[in-house]
Amino acid sequence: MLPRLAYETGKTGTRPRLTPWVVCPWVVLRLLERAGIIQATVIQPPSSAGSELSGGAGQKNKRKYYVEKNMSSVIQLPFTLDAARKRVSLNPLAVWIGFQLDELEPGRVASRMMVDTKHIAPNGFLHASVSIALADITCGTGSAALLRGPDENITTIEIKTNHLGTALTGQLFCKATARHAGGSTHVWDADVIAAAADKPIMVFRCTQMVLLR
Fold it and tell me: In the chain, fewer beta carbons within 10 Å around the N or the C end?
């Protein structure tokens, strides 16, 4: 059975607009398809999007369309602990890792998760992306609490991590602190701590950019 790659077509022309999870350039994709190595599945944009997905600002409008349809992207103010927990519950990645939000104060956030067998990489260690997800969701939640109005949102634009150890069982705790909270960017530091060893297994720093709708 041939592997299948999904790509997306626009409303004009025949060249597909590659979705983010396909990293092959268009030319390579076509060569692999012609050689019979892959089968490409064409996905048409939803018809309900209408003209919003066409025109010169196609990519921007398409992203706006999907963001507006995704209710978890809307940050309701005031962003209390209960509101933050509700928003996190709509985040599939947070649900998958078992993210739990414990504390939320301006410039400070605490969270935790329980390590499960699904979080272990093939090399037998905790998958690096799991602890990164824990820290990034924690910091992103903290940035959401620092926004000044309903027209603002946030996104991670830079991450720096150092992995100091691993954990195969037990709880991981994340403690995050805002080092900078400006009008356009926030900078956060976070430690991911393995409860069993009571020491950090990862130190994390990220930059969050404030978006205007």
Answer: N
Q: Which two tokens stand for residue 14?
A: 């025949």
Q: What length is written for the chain? A: 213
What is the share, in percent, of the chain residues with pLDDT greater than 70? Answer: 65
Homologous superfamily of 72-212? Hotdog Thioesterase (3.10.129.10)
Domain residue ranges of the chain, discontinuous segments joined by +: 4-49, 72-212
CA pseudo-torsion sign 134, 111, 89, 206: negative
159 Cβ contact partners less than 8 Å away, ≥ 6 residues apart: 132, 136, 204, 205, 206
Helix, strand or coil for residue 109?
A: strand
pTM: 0.69
- Mean pLDDT (whole number) for 100-118: 97
Cβ atoms < 10 Å from Cβ of 133:
19
Helix and strand numbers, DSSP H then E, in the chain: 5, 9
> Residue with structure tokens 């999870």?
21
Predicted confidence (pLDDT) at residue 9 exceeds the cutoff of 80:
no
Kindly report the backbone phi and psi dihedral angles of residue 162, in degrees, each rounded to the nearest multiple of 5, phi listed first.
-130, 120
Read off the amino acid at residue 143.
S
| Residue 149 C-alpha from the chain's centroid | 22
107: tokens are: 């410039």
Three-state SS for 151? coil
